[in-house]
Fold this sequence. Notes:
Mean pLDDT: 96
Helix content: 25-40%
Low-confidence stretches: none
Bound molecules: S-adenosylmethionine
Number of helices: 8
Largest sheet: 7 strands, mixed
CATH class: Alpha Beta
Structural class: alpha/beta
Number of strands: 7
Distance between the termini: 26 Å
Number of domains: 1
Order of helices and strands: HHHEHEHEHEHEHEE
CATH superfamily: Vaccinia Virus protein VP39
Strand content: 15-25%
Amino acid sequence: MGKRERDWIPDETDHDWIESLAQPLPPALAAIEAAARPERIPIVDRDAGRVLAVLAGGRKRIVEVGTAYGYSTLWMAYGQGPGGTIVTIDPDRSRTDLARGWWRQGGIADERITVVTAPALDAFAADDPRLAGPFDLAFIDAMKPEYERYVEALRPRLAPGALLVADNVLWSGRVSGSRPADPDDANTNALRQFDRAVLTDPGFLATILPVGDGLLVATLRA
Ligand SMILES: C[S@@+](CC[C@H](N)C(=O)[O-])C[C@H]1O[C@@H](n2cnc3c(N)ncnc32)[C@H](O)[C@@H]1O
């Protein structure tokens, strides 16, 4: 295994420098950040949002599992550009109704984003036509113990060359053991198993970007 041979890891100064060069944060994204914080709605880190926008570039059809206030949705919508569409799944309509307001504020036409109001596994099992593939990118950010089953459902819906992306796969260091974890914690154990399953699956080319809370990125091998 190639070990890191440098005695440096990025800190706040590096993050601030990157942010100083990045495109200014669109007001609708700033509004979601401000609304999510006091409500403790878990949204992707801004760094991860910027990565999602880049990954979404040129990808026409995106599916997302876990919408909340639509922060990651909006980053991807900006990244894919005006021709792209997103189907996003979340059973909590009180959150997704608010999300729609921020997407409108951000200039995203209603037709571009479809919300499926249901638990994702139910919607996939019911073969909801809105979830018919092929999708060019799938982003997973909902129930951690269900991640593996989301991938099972999404796999046949991915276009050749599509990207599969999942958030929270390092779970603040508890997955690798860099931070202490309760051995019985269901989320930690499920995420550890999920990472192992995807990264060792010969059908995927996959790695984990240590951005935000850990972003797993994978493509199906041809
Ligand atoms: C971490 S938040 C999503 C954050 C969002 N991706 C972002 O970064 O802006 C997880 C969301 O998953 C939703 N959720 C819970 N159970 C779900 C299920 N079974 N299927 C789909 N979404 C679910 C919750 O309602 C919550 O809003």
